[in-house]
UniProtKB/TrEMBL annotation:
Domain Metallo-beta-lactamase: residue ranges: 18-211
Pfam families for the chain: Lactamase_B_2 (PF12706)
Native organism taxonomy: Bacteria, Bacillati, Bacillota, Bacilli, Lactobacillales
Protein name listed in UniProt: Beta-lactamase domain-containing protein
Keywords: Zinc
Tagged with keyword Zinc: yes
InterPro entries for the chain: Metallo-B-lactamas, RibonucZ/Hydroxyglut_hydro
GO molecular function: 3'-tRNA processing endoribonuclease activity
Length: 253
């Protein structure tokens, strides 16, 4: 399984860098995980959007779905579509307005998921856990059943104890790390210190910090996360276009 970073900021794009979006690829599947602002332009550098097999959305905040509408227009209007049938867009249906908007003429179709579902897409097995965020949001576990590789994406969430068991043993953990370790007050995202604790509790070896802030020195955010794991976890700072192969994650650092 390979992960291509299309965007990694939280909230809004900045300095030419998109918000949340990741291309997940196996030998059988091209899956877009979240589709934030600026993601479609970056996706086009790596894959013809017509070659997507599905889109999977963690929740409906704009920094995770802003480019869904233009992706729908692409599937409706761009020439030379290589295959028939609508593009499946998976989202939870606890917000009916946003869920129903995933249906677009005959070009995209909304498909629901919830915490009790197991979705099988080609060689991928996908499961879900509701997180703690101001709107309904899900962490997502993606398993490549052919190669027995596991990716867990926390989606947006503050830290809570039960999250570690869902993330346990992942080959790659992608964490909402929106705050430096000095963040005080109400938090609906995790700090670098909390990401470090989650990594240790979940017994993972590789962490990609994501949903990053537009301010400060992101190298410091990475170092803070490493320190919180006692330097026992491979912490990866994302870059646009970065490709992570789960069979060789360590090669990135």
């Amino acid at each position: 399984m390979k992960v291509t970073v299309l965007g990694y900021y939280g909230g809004y794009p900045d300095n030419g860098i998109a918000t949340s979006g990741y291309l997940i690829q196996t030998e059988k599947i091209n899956l877009l995980l979240d589709c934030g602002s600026g993601v479609l332009l970056e996706l086009e550098k790596h894959l013809n959007p017509y070659n997507l097999d599905a889109v999977l959305l963690s929740h409906y905040h704009s920094d995770h779905i802003a480019d869904v509408g233009v992706l729908q227009h692409y599937w409706q209007l761009a020439p030379n579509k290589p295959k028939e049938g609508p593009l499946s867009i998976y989202g939870h249906n606890e917000d009916e307005e946003h869920f129903n908007a995933l249906n677009w003429f005959d070009d995209t179709v909304a498909k629901p998921y919830n915490e009790d579902n197991v979705i099988n897409l080609g060689d991928l097995e996908i499961t879900f856990k509701k997180t703690q965020h101001p709107v309904v949001t899900f962490a997502i576990k993606i398993k490549d059943t052919t190669k027995n590789q596991v990716l867990v994406y926390t989606g947006d969430t503050r830290y809570f104890e039960d999250l570690a068991s869902f993330c346990e043993g992942a080959d790659l953990l992608m964490t909402d790390t929106n705050f430096y370790d000095d963040k005080e007050g109400q938090k609906w995202h995790m700090t670098s210190k909390e990401t470090g604790k989650l990594s240790l509790d979940a017994k993972v070896k590789n962490v990609l910090i994501s949903h990053l802030p537009q301010y400060g020195d992101l190298d410091d955010l990475k170092k803070q996360t490493e320190l919180a794991t006692n330097n026992s976890v491979n912490v990866i700072l994302p870059k646009t276009g970065m490709v992570i192969d789960l069979k060789d994650v360590k090669s990135l650092n």
